[in-house]
Structure formats: structure tokens, C-alpha cells
Batch of 2 targets.
Target 1
Amino acid sequence: MSTATTDRRTFLKTAALASATAAIAGERAFGLPVLNNDAASSVQWHKAPCRFCGTGCHVQVGVEDGKVVAIAGDQRADVNKGLLCVKGYHVGMILYGQDRLTTPLLRQGNEYVPISWEQAIDTVAQRIMNAPERFAFYGSGQWTIPEGFAAQKFMKGGLGNNHIDPNARLCMASAVTGFLATYGVDEPAGCYADLDNCDVLIMWGNNPAEMHPVLFSRVIDRRSRGDEITLIDISTRRTRTTEHCQHYLEMKGHGDLAIANGIAHLLLKNDTYDKQFVEQYCNFRAQGDTPNLFGEAISFDEYRKRMEKYTPEYVEDCSGVPADKIRMLADLFGRRDVRITSLWCMGMNQHTAGTAINCLVHGVHLLSGHFGKPGDAPTSLTGQPSACGTVREVGTLAHALPGGRVVANAEHRKQAEQYWNVPEGRINPQPGYHTVKMWEQFCTPASAGGDIDTLWVQVTNPGQTLPNLNKLFNAKKNQPEKFLIVSEVYPTATTQLADLILPAALWVEKNGIFGNSERRTQQWFKMVDPPGSARDDCWQTIAVAHRLLELGHSGMRDRDGKFIFNVADDNGNDVPAWEWEHYYDVNVDKALFEEYRQFTRLKHKDLAPYEEYVRERGLRWPVVQQDDGTWRETKFRFVSFDDPYVEDGRDIQFYHSTTNDDRAQIWFYDWQPPAEVPDESFPFMLTTGRVLEHWHSGTMTRRVGPLSRAMPRAYVEVNPDDAMTLGIKTGDMVLVESRRGGIELPAWINGRGRPPRGTVFVPFFDETVLINDVTLDAHDPFSKQPDYKKSAVRVRKISG
Amino acid sequence: MTDNEKFSRREMIRSGVLGRWIENLLGQQSPAHDCQRDAHEPHLSPPPISSRRYPEKAADLPSGGPTRSRTSIPVLRPPGAIDEPSFLAECTRCDACLEACPHDAILHAPLRLREAAGTPMIDPMRQPCWMCDDRPCIGACEPGVLQHNRDDVMGTARITEETCLAYTGSFCTVCVEQCPVDGAITMTDGKPRIIEDKCTGCGVCQYVCPAPHNAILLMPALQRSVRTKPPGEVQHD
């Protein structure tokens, strides 16, 4: 052992250099992270959050000669404590795919012609100038906070146009409506520390071993150190997560609604609900004649009455989960001596009753009092690095304003106009088009009522990720009056139909700020230059805004007649940031962030000054200044022991209660079947999702050699019994076909995931086989989030 | 004790898997070179003795064995290869196996492999042997230095636990999933284990391993059995 220790020390000393030279010389060398820059090494290390998922791991980025040459887990980061997942270790490689877009490209007929940035910006501005109200902006949870804030201000505070929506609509909109309807304010009350403290972890349609591996590692690490923790997987198929769980509850699509109600039924029947908690902190709520997020008050007795039919046996009928398992869950929730954390992500959000199931799971935690203690928490996870930070907090949604405000509220509009210093009445009170509607309007000819002509996409890939692509994306083809602008880093399914492609800077090629799943705001600085003439998305927005100002659009001026994105340097001199040569003369990110900070105090989502985030590995809001001048983050909201906004003498206070009485709402929703169920013609249920090695639509990870080799292409998982009936073996080509479209892909039997009979699974990362040609565009009535998890399909062997 | 302190030495080791990307790792180094190099990493526990293993030290080799000979550098041969001295003597360098391989996995051994130069070999980091059911490379081999119906073992893979994502706190199941030989890699508690008696050394696991520092060592078989059929016999089974 002593030899090994000595050697580790030697490795530590030489690792930084070794890793750097290894990357350059192509030699194989063993590397351990050295975060303190060794004098002998010319590699400079900087912090950044990982570019991929919503977990928000911090990485150390090694830079040498203007290139990212090494990545290490950041041991100072509370989220990941030095650990990364397989994608994270390779995150630097996403910058160096061979086909990076490096120059603006304009479509002329079937060809793309390189044009200058001046022409490109002018083209966008002219399209908008011609018909500002027929322009829409489509972004994502990969927008940095300043990028999203700039786009938001440009649209709502500049053009007076609310047609701005993000891909996060497809991803966590139902989580938002669930939080709003229950607590009156978005985002989880707890944080990842709940994972370190719970005794029971219930995963509702969630596969963290693949989708949030570092978080799941935190849990498995506890177990390996001897902690007893019960893992329960409620799912429609066996996954890598299932293998680590004591209980696997296999449910039919939408069974979760019945299961949650079944738990509530037994808590009431057995009298094991938390009476004191409910009496002190909760109201009961249900939908009335005009469904909305406020609903109507119902009495406790009424709630009890409505829950009466959800006996374990009835729940078994609806969900397919045995009645005994429902009793097991209810017994756990009925105990006061265990701490229970619920985790969910797309399984509950991509759901035509997404708002309902989110509310019901919150309701089970509230009814049983499993809330407000470390480890007792209903916690939703996000899939994008700034779905929370940019979309939910900056509010880049068709109906929202920064800081949890909405356009429909006159007071909110007035407040935003004041912070933005734009004339009163600038913000349009009418919400804009949500994602599905926006693309429908864009794909519908003007003559048939399609009133969006120009659509600008930044940092996402709707040509792959929208549901029912033939209707919502491919229909754009052959409509010359429609103009699609795409800011991208690589050619994608979306750029295929683009009329103008704008090459963008990626990740550490620009300054940025993300906000992760646990309310943690994370900052990084630009470390390397983007390739060719690729430029920051934020700059692109500001440059177009300035060109519009030159063209005479009055919306680009504030109350004082100044440009709405006017930025000044430390001496108060204006900097022409819309000119690329001057964009980095001043920290535009910081200027936008400080402007945005004002909004964050409106709904107790307070952010600290920019400089605090430069120092930290992220801080969880509300971040409140202490008497000694320091800034303190908040791990647990609504509870007196941690949240500074809970009044003295109160243990728990839901200070944004929709009923203005500091109480949370326990909702009743009935079980309902999925929007599409298998029938004779389409006898299988198709469910879609991600895989560990690839992130989102794979545009970055598929260009990383090791990840691409590990998971080269999409496949369809088929149950072995179904496969036998259909004569399908692993590797056979299979046609998966719905009423909307079909694709061919190889079968994988007993592979990574194991669907039950009657279910097939296809991942969506592979742009060569677009499963969203097949999926359904039915969506939740409140969140407008589509259900990618339940489409009826038929399956046929093509060749073996 | 703070949260940070709780993440102990184990954490350090797990985070020790430094993310680096090294495209085209091989092509620079022969598999043999890799094995020797990695086998001498002091932190590796000594492997169990096995006749199919590549020996760690010169002392492990049978005395008077092939070490003294210039043919001792082990080369990862296509499946069904006969013993190395006969292979070298009888392979006609006709390239029929190279052309027959549907995966382009077989290439010419580079000059630095001395007398093996130009003979067919597999570099799994470039393209491994995917273990085709019908072994077209064997079918194409006229001199019969590749033979059907014999021990197909090209080598043996070994997992370096210190760099394997599954052993260092992360999750990964790629080698288990993609291994073309039934039962050659099993998984217990999320951790892969190679069953040496079943491993053929095809190199698929090494090729697909996404760990930042490849966690698979591949040792070409040092000794292969002599031919079981006379040279020139038609290979049609």
C-alpha cells in the first residue's frame, strides 16, 4: 500500500502536465485531477458548470494555448464533490466537433451561401421590421440567464410581442404549474441535501441512474457507506435505476394519478395523515367549471369523499400496480419516523395530466406531513442546465415576465416597464403563443391563418424535439413566405430547414450563468474563443435590436431615448456592445444580470450580486445579505430554520399561498386515461426518453467519439415475449409506426431498459431516426406540455 | 464533520478519473505496448495466474519459452489463429481476411512489430472484432492459419477498476451491453466483471469503453494452440 500511496502522490504532481500533453500528443497517460495549478504546467484551470443536464455539476476546465485540453470534476462543488458522469468527463470535446458552424449562411434555393455578419443581422432585422407582430422567438433552458433575459427584454420590453417560448415548455412546464397551483410560487422547496437525508426515495417515472447519474451516485454512495435507504421505483419499464431499488412498481401509463390518490385514500382511511400539519398549513382544492390553476376551495370532508373510491383494488385496476404495493406506500407515508423524498422529471411532466399528477404528489407529501424537514420533500428535477435559471426565473415563456410575474397582470407589467425603463404600455397584456401553438402557426400558411412568418431559434433543436414533427416542423418546407432563423453550433435537424443560419459560441466560449434544479445560480467566464466567426447568442440578440433601432423601430429605445441594451463601462462611458469588436470591452453578462436582479426580489427569489457568484460554486436562492454584509443562500424554503422570509414565530409559512393565508393547496384530481391508448390497429404503447451517454438531441454528445461509440444509434426496446410473437431478434430492423408517422430502427431485447408486454421504448437522441415523427402532440391543458411518453403504435419486423 | 469532509479518500479516487479526450489513441501504440505499460502500473493488484494471460513479468514466463525469440511480441490476431510461430511461417500475407472482414477490423501489423509486420492483426481501439457468427475472415483464409471450430481466443480483456466509471462512483454498463459473447461480461451491483473463460479478447469492450481513461486492458493471447487441421484444407464449416 505504501508504494501505491507514493505513486499516487507522484501522479498527482505530474497529472496536470501529463493530461495536457496527452491531449496534444495523443499519448496515453494516467491522469488525476490537479486543481491547484502546478508551476510546471502551462494549463490554466477555471470553474464552470457542466453544459449538459439540470443537475448542475461543476467542472474544472483546463485551458492551454486557447484550447480546452482537460476536464476534471470540481471537488469544491457541493453538487458533485468532484464526481462527474460519463458525459461530464467528456464535456470539453463538444467544442471540437469537425463540423462546427463558423460563418453565417443564407439559403438561396437549395444552397447555403456564406454571408457577412452585417448582412445576417440586417436580414433578421428587416424580417422583424416588416412585421414585428408576426415574429416569434424560440429559445430553451440552455439559454444562459443573461441570454434569456436579453431575449425576454427584446421581445416583451422592446417589440411589445409576447411570442417567446422555450423548449422547456416540452420539458418542465407541468412541474411549474404543479408548484404554482400548490405553493403559489415555482421551484422546489428543498434541495439536493434531501437526497443525503431521506430514508425513503421514491422515483415517480424517473430514471436518475441514467438521467441524473451524479445525484443518484450521492444516494448509492450513502448506501455503500452503510446508510439504510429504501429505493422505490414507480415506472412503466425496468431501467438501470430499477436494479438498485428494493421495490419496483410497474404501472400502466397514467397509473401514477391513481397511485397518488390511492396513498391519500389510505392515509385518510387509516387515519395516518398528519392532522396537525393539514390543519395548520393546508387548504383543499379542486377544479370547478372553468379549470385553472387556482381552482375552487373544497372542504376536507369533500376531499375525503372524492378520495373514497381510490381503494387499493381500484387503484390496481387503473394502474396495474398490485394493491399490496399501494398499501406499502401508504404505510410509509403514514409513518412519522421516516423521511421521504419524491423525485420526478419527465415521467410526470410529459403527461397530458402533468399538472394534476404534480399537484397530487405534492398533495400526498402535504397530507402526510412529509414536508419541510431535510429529507422530507417533493422534488422535481430538470433536464436542462438552466431550465430553472433562465426559463422559470427569467420567465422566457409566452405568458411570463422576469421574477415570477405575468404579462396579464397590469401591475406586473408596470413594474417590469419601470425596471426596464421602457414607456408604460409597452408590454402587451395578451400572452403569446406557447411552443406547440407557435410552431403550428409557423407551419400553417398565412392564407390559412398561420400568423407567424419569421421564427428565430436559439440554443435548441426543435426539428428533432418537437412532438409530431410532420405537423409541427416539417410542414414548414415549401412555404417560401416563412423564414426560419437558427443560431446553432452544429448542423442539426433544425438547420436543415433554416433560411438563415447564425454560427454561435458554445459554453466556455462565452460568459454565462446557469440556474440548476435546486435553485442554484452558477457563473462562469469565457475561456476560449469560438471558432471562425461564431458569436455569442446574446450578442446576436443585441445586434439585431440595435439594427432595428437604426431602422427606426421605436421599441428599441427606452423612456430616455436610449438603446434598450445600452451598456456602460466602469467609468460610465457607453460601450457599443452591439459591435462585436466591443462586445467584450465590458462584461455584458454582468450588466444584464444586475438589471435582472431587481426582478428577483419581487417574489422572494433574491439573487446576490454578480461578484458573489464569481467566487462561489453557485448559490441557492433566495440569497439574502446578512448584517455583516455577507450573502447567505437558502437550502430549504418555507421553513423557519432556514428560510429568512418565514416570519418569526412560524414554523412553516407558505408566504406565496394562492389563497393569501400562508397555506399550501392539497388538490384533488381524478384519474384519467392517457390521450392515446393502444387499440387493435395500434396495439403497443410507445414511450420515449434519453440514455446515459447522450444529452438532449445528441447534437453535442454524438460528436464526442467515446460517447458516440458507447451508444452509436437509437434502438427500440421490445419485451422478449412480444418479440417472440412478432418474430423479432435483437438487431432485427423493426418498423415503429403510429397514426402520425413511422421510423425503422434495430430492436434491442433485454437491453438497458426492459419494457413490459405491450410497451416499446425508443430514445430520442438520434437525428438519423427521429422518433418524434411518431409521437403525439396532445398536451396538458394548463402547462401546454406535450406527452411524449404515451403514443399508440404498431410494430413490425422489416428485416433480420 | 462537514459534508465535504464526509466525501473521503474514496471520493478523491473516484474523482481521479480525469476527463481527457484522446482521439485516435492507438495507431500510435500497439496493444502489446499498452499491456506492458499498464501491467506495470504499481497500483494494480496482481492478476490471477492463467495460462491465457499475458505474463506481467519476465519471470512469469516459462523458462526457455518464446521470450528469447524475436517473435515474442504478442499480436492480437483475427479469430481462429493458430499458434504464433506457425502463423508467422504460414500466413501468406494475401490480405483475403482483410477484405473479407465486414467491419474493416483487420489491418496490417505495423513495421515496429518486426517479423509480424504486414500480417493481419486487430487494433480494437480503431475497430474491434465483432465476432461474426460465420467468421468470414476464417472462411477466406486459404493457407488455413485461421481455422474454424477451434478455440477462438484472441486474447483476454481485463477491467482496470481505478478508471472504470462503474467502479468509481459513476454509472456505466456499456461493456456489458455491447459484449458480443454471451456471458463473457457479467454485472453485479452495477459493476461489470469479465469471465475470463468466456472472454475471446475481441476488444469490443475496449472500443466502446467511454471512460476518460479507457478502463479495459486487452492482452493478446500469448500462446495459442497449434493447428488441428492440415494446411490447405477447405474452410467451409
Note: The CA atoms of residues 12 and 133 of chain B lie 44 Å apart.
Target 2
Amino acid sequence: MSKTETQDKEVILSVKNLKKHFVVGGGQVVQAVDGVTFDVYRGETLGLVGESGCGKSTIGRTLIRLYGVTDGSVEFKGKNVHELKGQELRAFNRQMQMIFQDPYASLNPRMTVMDIIAEGIDIHGLASGEERRKRVIELLKVVGLNEEHADRFPHEFSGGQRQRIGIARALAVEPEFIIADEPISALDVSIQAQVVNLMKKLQKEQGLTYLFIAHDLSMVKYISDRVGVMYLGNLVELAGSDELYENPLHPYTEALLSAVPIPDPKTAKTRERIILEGDVPSPINPPSGCRFRTRCPKAMEICAKEIPQWKEAQPNHFVACHLYNE
Amino acid sequence: MSKLLEVRDLHVSFKTYNGEVKAVRGVTFDLEKGETLAIVGESGCGKSVTSQTIMRLIPNPPGFIKEGEILFEGDDLAKATEKQMEKIRGKEIAMIFQDPMTSLNPTMTVGAQIIEGLVRHQKMSKAEARNKAIEMLRLVGIPSPESRLAQYPHQFSGGMRQRAMIAIALACQPKILIADEPTTALDVTIQAQIIDLMKELQKKTGTAIILITHDLGVVADIADRVVVMYAGIVIETGKLDEIFYNPRHPYTWGLLGSMPRLDLRSDQKLLPIPGSPPDLISPPKGCPFAARCKYAMKICKEQMPERTDISSTHQVACWLEHPMAPDVKPPVAAVGGTKDE
Amino acid sequence: MSANAAKELSPELFEPVASEAGAEERILRERVGFWKDAWRRFRTNPGAMAGLIVLALIVFFAIFGPMMNKYDDHTNNLTISNQEHIGDHYFGTDNLGRDLWQRTWHGAQVSLLIALLAALIDLCIGVTIGSISGYFGGRVDDILQRIIEILYSIPNLIVVTLMLLVFDPGIVPIAVALSITGWVPMARVVRAQIMKLKSQEYVLAARTLGAGHRRILFKHLIPNVMGPIIVAVTFAIPSAIFFEAFLSMIGLGIRPPQASLGSLVFDGYNYLQIYPYQLFYPAAILCLIMLAFNLVGDGLRDALDPRMRK
């Protein structure tokens, strides 16, 4: 789908001012996600990038109800997901699914591949007996495996195969929306491409919507229609993926883009890099005002005082930065 | 330039419950003074085992060197005793690891860990070593090194720890620095800091670097020469530009073609390599990549290809280079992104 | 490549071969389930195998030993008291002329039964409390942990003594008495494991699929804690045997004429200076049981430890 027509599309997921805080020992509070607002359109892939600890995985887990919310709301097809009960909750569990990061921890080592993939089928009573087996084998074929793999245990598979089994498990309940939480970070490059291409193919065939969470900007840009950049619990910029690369507005996005290694010696040796000083501050006691100001090469006085507003600085290009105040 | 390290036909195996895992099956390369050699490949290709074997850090049992030589300035490290290795480790060849947290001693201050090596290898006095340690920490860009010296590793952030590791590794002015995935555990912005630091330090100290990595982006940025490994063997080796702009092995094509490029528009096509690497308990008789190779021929499955010279610096082990083999053009995805403006 | 070798290659070798569909996905190693894999590792551990064989022998004799001569374990025959070598009294006789072979194996039977029963009760209570505490966490965990701490802070000798004053010391009451505090280590092992496992991604995946608590506990968590549970049981058994022996020594154990290994050791101890053989046999078997269980436990821990998996 083209990136310019997103405004005509149906909003499938709407996140408004989402906050998720965790209480850690000693009464301290980790502000993992602090006021994030974005929409996801049906059929698109929204990428979410950021460095470790920026809260991108917390967002994913909060959307699918693995965590409750501290403040704000998550609406999936017009309904607040954290208030769902009974039949509606069961339907939600089928409509939204998740693919996990660690191919070694995301499959129960004591279950056969058959039982792992059929878990959703069993929970929702979708099929049993011969029908169940047939569905699982079908799913195995969809992800490029076959019948002979069904009765084996996860530890017999390679990382890429395991990740595809995880995808088959998610597909078993015929979801509409899939949150992929760093699905390729633990895989080798050649295998990453297998998984990403499979995800693209599935999207085309089944009309899936993805929230693709990763720290690898090149891969996120490759798979996503739009990309959101997170820093220390905040969404700092959101735009179409080519637009974001060609016209980054936030200084953090600029620095992040310039730091991503490019596998081409000529480009690598000639391009200008912005090297950020220091490390990401702690989310327990984040800087006042704009959270990036302590490392920002363009920080101004106002950045320490006021939290920058989240606004549409250019059409379909959102940013939270004082540089773009009227 | 002269050869600092020569690895000749190295074979390393591990004994396991399931049988002998032949992790390294005949690796040959050399390292020249002051250069950066990148060993690239996917997990399980034997790149880390090779580097740990050079340092003789492979636990025996289960690991053992089956055959081959590791010539460091003429001495064969493969046959060196533990005592001889102790003199080489840290002083002549130093190593930094992927996870600085597990390679630093959590119960010792960072300063003490630098000073320890200096006192032992350089026969410095405590006071001299302390000054040198402060100098090293400043060199790797750690602010206020005097006070940092008395801190423990857990008080350092991930990037700072990796800097401290580099300071420890370089303190004794080793001739070779082996960096095993030094940036993999770090965030991109921190990764950029560390790569810059390594480049800068190499300019200052002239240390030769063996960089073990799977990230071709890092390789493009820092390496002079590249060794591509697959399933325990070297399949292609050459200068940086030869590997990136004239890759000859289908596996190298696959590696280059399966990486998305940030600087290309999103209609780029990724070219994945199907399947997974072979099981090294029973590696295939012929070329280990044959089962995943689009261009595989009968002979690939029967006989291991020999090294062919493309140029004096560029070698490849592939049957496609044989005069009788069909002429095959590399896919656009592998070399297409590299067109000059 | 040598010039000769090059000539021998025929052109047809250079014909491209289409790769078989799905060939690159094939798994060549034979299918190995969790238990089979564990057994393969266990088998290669000589200490653990020796322990297993010793245990099998002791259990065999505890069951069939009493059938091997014509005596029983409680008939006195004062005419042959304290004889070390007499007829087919393989282990000799005690001060009342009872056959020590019979008494030793009956005693082993009693000791093993008490220990197994105690371990079984520990298992049931420990796994239940441990998994509830670990899985639900929060308030539930706090309350259960305080109860455990209180129980654990009372010396178990006092609890057991009080129990055995109320009930007649037999196999079941002793086993129950041992279990009153005995389940605590098991609960702790299970709690720690469950807490670790419940944040694993496969559990999260089950939750996102809408799995209920029961399914998560019984399908995902407990099967993955089986390894540590089995190891804990193997170590609980010898400690129960030892504690029972200790109770017998201080006169709180099995009442005569019934015997356990502990009471036999105690009886033998009284005649140690004159008839050392009366102490030797039961003590040796007691030691062998302890040693064997510990060896097997160590072997199981290595075999079931997921970090050892390759």
C-alpha cells in the first residue's frame, strides 16, 4: 500500500497518551512508557524503533494486555482493550497475536511442535482430532515447514525454524493484528531475511496488520510503511519510512540514522556521522522537559523547562521537539 | 608489511554426547601488522572458536585442536604450553568480548583490573601502573578517569564497560587485539561510539585487530580485509572492496543480499538464503553450502572445492570458478546496491 | 587443485542440480524426547549409574531378601542369641536370637517406605504450595512465604517429638511427622523455578492466546519444573531416611519388635564392643542407601539441567 493514502484508511488500533509505570524496589518508579499517542491503520506495518530501555517492548506488551495501563487508553477496533471481559475478551485474544523475540524461550521445550501450534486451536476449541492435525500441518506448510516436523520437539530446530513455528502458533487463531516484538533480533542475517519475507508474504495473503518492534533501523525501515522512533519512554517522531529517512526532524532520529552501519565501504567511509555523547539516562529519574536534551546537540533553554508537544509538523509527519514550535 | 599471525589448516573439534562437533575444519588466513581483519559469518560458522583457539581459550575437554598451526611471530601457539600462553595472553595478544559484564571481574575495581595486567606483564610498580591505567581510561574516552578507577564494573554503563574492556586489553600494548563481536550487545548509538574509538586507537597504537562479527555494516566501516566463514571453513577471503564489490561465492552474495540497506528506498528486495547451516556433527562431504545454494552442481555435493585465486589478495572456494562450470552472474540484490553515483 | 585432478573431472559433474524441495529444512538427527535425552546423559555418568545399581540391589533385597531364609523378623530364640555365624542366619542373630538378615531387610523396607511416603507427601504439598506462591505472587506469595518462614523457624525435632507423642509411631505417623516441615525445601525449589519460568516467552505466548491459569500451570509451568522436582525428591529421600534413623536412636522411632535401619543401628550400637557385626550390616546398608541416593541425585541434576542441553 502506498504511504500517502494512510489517512483514508481505517484505524484499527488507537493508542492515546499511554503511560506504563513499574514500581521497583524502594518505592522507585520506572517510567517505562510515558505518554505515547499513535494510530495503526488496517493492513499497514507500523515499525517501532529505539534503543534498549526505550519502552518499545513495554508498549507491545501493554497493547496485548500482558501489562495493565497506568494511564491513557488502548482502543482496538473502537473498544478499550483493558476493559474487555468474557466473550469480547476471548475474541480479542484471537484477533490480536504476538510473535516473540527469543526463539529459544518462546516455545515450551516439553511440548511437540504439533501441540505448540495447536495451543490456540485448543484454547478456543476451534478443532479437534484429525481436523486439528490437518490445520496444524497446513500452518506448518504456510511457514515453510512440513508434516514431518509436527511431532518433533523445539530443541531439534534451528533459530529460524523456531521463529517460524512461533509465527504459525500466532496464525492458528486467524488474527488480524500481530505484534512482532523483536522477531528477528536473535537470528542470523540470512535467516532474518527469511522471516521478514515470510511476514511480508503473510501480510499480503491474509491482510494482516503488524506492529513491528525492533532496534534494527534498517530492517524496520525495510518492512514498515510508517516508523515511530522512541527515546526513553516517549515517542519522538513518527512518519512514513522513506520520509523518515530522507527528512528526519528530531535530532535523535538524525543521530540514530547516522549511527546505523551501512554494509557498503564507500558509503561507510564518506558519510557524515553524528556521534551522540554519553548514555541513555535512567527511566527512574528522567531529565526534565525533553528527555533527550542531555544528549541533544541542538538543546535549547526551553528544552529543560517544557515537555515538547506531540504534533503533526508536516502532513503525516509527527514529531515532539521544541525546534518545530511555531 | 609482514605477517604477524599465520593460521594454517586449523581444525578444532568438540566432543559431545551426540558425537564429535567439527567446529573448525581447515581454516587458513594470515594477519599483517597494523591491519584490521574481519572474520564474518553466522553463528556456528566457527569464527569465535577460531579466535578463541588462537588465544588457546578453548576448554579441553571437550574442545581440542585436531591439526593445524597458529604461527605467531614464528612460534606455533597450537603447541604452546599453558605457561607460554600466559606470557602471550594479554601481553602479545589481547581479547575483548561481546558481553563486557561477564568478562570483567565484578568483585574487583576497574582500576585494579587494569593495574593487575600492567604489574604482571610490564613489570611496572604499583604507582606507575596506576598512572598508566588513568592514561588508558582517558585514552578510551572515559571521563574523570581518576575517580572511575576506584569503581566496580556494575557502576559502569554498557558502553563504558566496553570502553574499560578495551582499556584493559590495550594497556600492555599487545600486537594483536581480537575483538569478538565487540558491539553486538550495544545499542546503535553506543556501537558507533565504540567503532570510532577502535578506529582511532588503531591509528594511535598500530595494533592489528581481528574483528569477529556477523554485522557487515560494521565490517564495511572498519575492516581492511575480510575472511568469510561458513560451517567451519573459509569460503572467501579478500580485501574489503573485493568482498563488497566483487563477491564471488554464492554465500557471500546471500549475506550481502539478505541485509536491508538504510540508504536504499523501501522497494529493495531482500534475498534470503533458504534453510539453515549444516549440522557439524556430520558435515556434508562436498561444499557445506551446496544444500542451500541456488547454483549447486553435482560436483558441489561430492567434492570440497579448492581455493581459487581471483587476485593475489582475493581467494574463493567455489566450484563456480572452475573452467568447466557454467557462467553465473551474482544476483542484483547482492551487488546492485553498490552502484557508484 | 592439481592439473591431473582437473582433467579427471567430467563435464556432467558441472551440471546444475535442482535442490530438492524442502531438503534444506530436513532434520537429520533422530528424534530425541526430553526423557530419552536425559537418560542418555545419565547413562554416561558412572557414579550415577553405580548409585542406581546399588539402589536397585538394595530394593531387590528389601523386597525379596526376607524370602531367602526360613526365619522371620520377630521370633525370639534365646538359644542362639548373639551368634555371628550360625546356619543360614546370613547376618547372624541378635541378643534375643532373632535373625538379623530378616530384621535388616525388614528394617530397610520400613526405612525406605517411610522415606518414600514422606517424600511423596513433601512432593504433593511442596509442589502445590510452591506453584501457587510462585505463580500468583503478590499478596498470596507474601502470606505463604510468612507461613513457610514460621514453620521453618520451629526446630523440626520439636514438631516431630510432639507429633509422635500424640500418635503411635508407625510408618505413616512418622512419615507424616517428617513431612510437616519437610515440604518446605520442595516448595521453595518449585516457587523459585515457577517465578523464573512464568516470565518466559512461551508462557506469555500462552497468555496472549487466552490460556487460563490452569492450563498455564499444568501444561507450561509444572512440566518444565519436573527436572528440579525430581532432583529435590531424590535428595529428600535420604534425608528422611537419616532423620528416621535419628528418631529411632533417641527412641521415638519404630517400636520393637518392628525394626528400621535406624533402630537396628541403635541396637547394634549397644553391643558394639562385643558384637560389632550387629552394628555393621544395618549401618553399611544405611550408608549405601544414602550414598546411592546422593549419587543418583547428582546424576539426575546433571542430566536434567537444561543448561547442559546441547
Note: The two ends of chain B are 33 Å apart (CA to CA).
